[in-house]
């Protein structure tokens, strides 16, 4: 996200909206490969759909059996794909800023599908698009991010981008889970205050992997203290919306019956993910001069 | 299969025959995903071929790395695929009637690729098509299903559908492997009587996983008592045919040299599998009013 | 490679060159499946790209979950794919001459993607094409293959084919790693002599799996004795080239900074792999009379 100006972000949002209402198609086949060194079926499927809707061919890549397991560097893996004719790679990798070793050294286009605990630009862009569809602006919106702020790349990217676009970002959830650095971007608020005064409630997934329930909280305790219950939903501001990056722990972050309620944008976020990724693919391909005129809009 | 009337079944058979002789193609791209929570390469490849022959794009789905492993429900997984734009899912799942939790709650089209020990409609339909190609009717045909009736979803679905279509269904094989419930549909016959008097012999796979040979039977003993040997094949009724859902244990259910003999329809069943699955995909898509006119026949 | 005459080889090379400069496309969809029973992402991706560039549809095949794991024979697996409509299979298998059990028994087209320690024709053809692009002939070229000759299918296939095409083949590397049989094709030379007098240096990968460094050589010792160092590169014959089948152990077979130097054809070999595989696919499909006119060149 750091590479994008505010204008770039608005350009991706507007182009995603245009794609959603019409369509975008490449004039001839281009080749994409999705290098997911961390599991994330949801993000991978969404990129694959975006690539196919643009008319790209997708070359399958299985990180488990790749030569990288024999000690090949990420650079050599990507360079190999470039050599066989891949035009764009989407990479998700556990290492923070893995892309530093690739930038300026390869000719194909790259999209970051998530790195370590750092960035997750396509998730961030789809969240921005979803908010934009409701409010048509970010200026002055009160947006509260709730949950495990410290370990969430979504929280970090979103907080920074939303602040840059003019929103008032706040954080809520267990105090121990806050991120001291992000506290310079927005203040901590009690959850019940957040529920009543926010335009957007962005609930984060509680990662069982990280927080063994029973240790700090039982599922029931978390839901009672920091979960969106039916009672809290009734106290939400008129017109305000609920977001969640999914998969949802039903009955923990959000009551089961609220996941598809009127205020919920959760499945809409997933649909928007495809449009945003199409726009991002178009964006990186168009940065290569020769590909500028390859799109039929 | 319970959802299909006899007319529906004949409609699928006739449309599979039409597809086999000509072709069917969707006018614009549709998106399919194959959710195989149980391994079945054969069925999965066949559906994938059917989808591609119809002109669909297939979004890859790896059940091993899916969010369902993090506790996501099947409903949320399917709903996610719907949200990203998948038009039809084929699901194979170890749980009986897994589809009950989905029916009426999702907008995309679904095909059951096999559930628990219950149903396996596409296998059933391809068996029906194969018989129909030889006899052009089911009325009065003597059809014997041989082997592990009790643990076979193929046996169950086929027996019920064939009986409904007017065939005389019989069972043979080790007495311990019979299914008391299915005995209301047809009687038990000695294997040598079945060999001589059946129009169709449907041999089932002996599942090594389930029946450790050496415990009840050695492979040789099973072959001698319930296997189709060269000697038995010679005593089969004129014009009668041999079927098997595959993979065959050569030299157990069927003598090696009979697998591709004149009476054998085993590889033809596999070819028919693709046509039937194309017809089923067409069938479910056409049930969505808006898609009725999307096929070029 | 044994099946190909010298004329066949030149035909594949010339058709790969034509494809590289123009393109080849099938007039209607054909279906390919890549059966990789041994991991080799590089070769598999390259074949997949070749198939897609020809306009083929690729049916996914996962060797780990295939019925072959339940004891199905390779013949039945291939015959199944033929039955569902696959036109061409590419097979990589750990067993030497696995294809003997298939030849003449199946109707679809087959390409050997590597068998046991025996053959790896597409790697061989891409190496030939790469040399041909520089020298436009093989006659009289001095070509030295360096490294673990004994365990390399690349070394074996290349040595035989290059000799047949008129090149003077030599071998270098640790004496213990030489292959007595291949010594009838070419002589052993000291590495420093090879560096100075060869037109082509084909470096082989040191397989950590096989040669635990520290036992025979440390990485540093191997590099000092048999590796292409910056110093050695300076003493190479004018116009001579460096090849390697990849993945390279940077700093072992070749100094890190030489992998992409002017003399290196390493990434060009990978690009050529796609063109050669397209030519091979075209070659086997055209051997089936009915498919001869299906290509738009």
UniProtKB/TrEMBL annotation, chains A, B, C:
Q: What is its EC number?
A: 2.1.3.2
Q: Protein name, please?
A: Aspartate carbamoyltransferase
Q: How does it assemble?
A: Heterododecamer (2C3:3R2) of six catalytic PyrB chains organized as two trimers (C3), and six regulatory PyrI chains organized as three dimers (R2).
- Alphabetical list of Pfam families matching this protein: OTCace, OTCace_N
Q: Which GO terms describe its biological process?
A: 'de novo' pyrimidine nucleobase biosynthetic process; 'de novo' UMP biosynthetic process; amino acid metabolic process
The record ties this protein, via NCBIfam families, to:
asp_carb_tr, PRK00856.1
Domain Aspartate/ornithine carbamoyltransferase carbamoyl-P binding as annotated: residue spans: 1-133
Report the sequence similarity comment from the record. Answer: Belongs to the aspartate/ornithine carbamoyltransferase superfamily. ATCase family.
Q: Which GO terms describe its cellular component?
A: cytosol
The entry marks the following residues as binding L-aspartate, namely 70, 153, 205
- Pathway field: Pyrimidine metabolism; UMP biosynthesis via de novo pathway; (S)-dihydroorotate from bicarbonate: step 2/3
Role this protein plays:
Catalyzes the condensation of carbamoyl phosphate and aspartate to form carbamoyl aspartate and inorganic phosphate, the committed step in the de novo pyrimidine nucleotide biosynthesis pathway.
Record field: catalytic activity: carbamoyl phosphate + L-aspartate = N-carbamoyl-L-aspartate + phosphate + H(+)
- In this chain the Aspartate/ornithine carbamoyltransferase Asp/Orn-binding domain maps to 139-283
- Report residues binding carbamoyl phosphate: 42-43, 92, 120, 123, 246-247
Gene designation per UniProt: pyrB
Q: Which InterPro entries match?
A: Asp/Orn_carbamoyltranf_P-bd, Asp/Orn_carbamoylTrfase, Asp/Orn_carbamoylTrfase_sf, Asp_carbamoyltransf, Asp_carbamoyltransf_Asp/Orn-bd
**Record's keyword terms, sorted:** Pyrimidine biosynthesis, Transferase
């Amino acid at each position: 996200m750091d590479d994008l100006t505010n204008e770039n972000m608005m350009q991706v949002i507007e182009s995603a909206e245009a794609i959603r209402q019409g369509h975008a198609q490449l004039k001839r086949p281009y080749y994409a490969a999705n290098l997911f060194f961390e599991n994330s079926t949801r993000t991978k499927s969404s990129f694959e759909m975006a690539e196919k809707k643009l008319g790209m061919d997708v070359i399958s890549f299985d990180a488990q059996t790749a030569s990288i397991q024999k000690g090949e560097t990420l650079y050599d893996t990507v360079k190999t794909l470039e050599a066989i004719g891949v035009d764009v790679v989407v990479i998700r990798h556990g290492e923070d800023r893995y892309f530093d070793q690739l930038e300026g050294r390869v000719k194909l286009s790259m999209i970051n599908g998530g790195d370590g605990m750092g960035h997750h630009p396509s998730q961030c862009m789809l969240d921005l698009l979803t908010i934009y569809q409701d409010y048509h602006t970010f200026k002055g919106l009160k947006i509260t991010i709730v949950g495990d702020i410290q370990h969430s790349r979504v929280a970090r990217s979103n907080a920074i981008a939303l602040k840059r676009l003019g929103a008032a970002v706040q954080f809520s959830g267990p105090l121990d889970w806050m991120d001291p650095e992000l506290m310079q971007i927005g203040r901590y608020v009690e959850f019940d205050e957040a529920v009543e005064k926010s335009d957007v409630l962005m609930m984060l997934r509680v990662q069982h992997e990280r927080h063994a329930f029973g240790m700090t909280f039982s599922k029931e305790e978390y839901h009672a203290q920091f979960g969106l219950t039916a009672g809290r939903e009734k106290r939400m501001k008129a017109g305000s919306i609920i977001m969640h990056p999914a998969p949802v722990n039903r009955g923990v972050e959000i009551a089961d019956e609220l996941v598809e309620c009127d205020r919920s944008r959760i499945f809409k976020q997933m649909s928007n993910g495809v449009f945003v990724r199409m726009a991002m693919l178009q964006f990186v391909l168009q940065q290569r001069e020769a590909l500028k005129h390859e799109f039929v809009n």
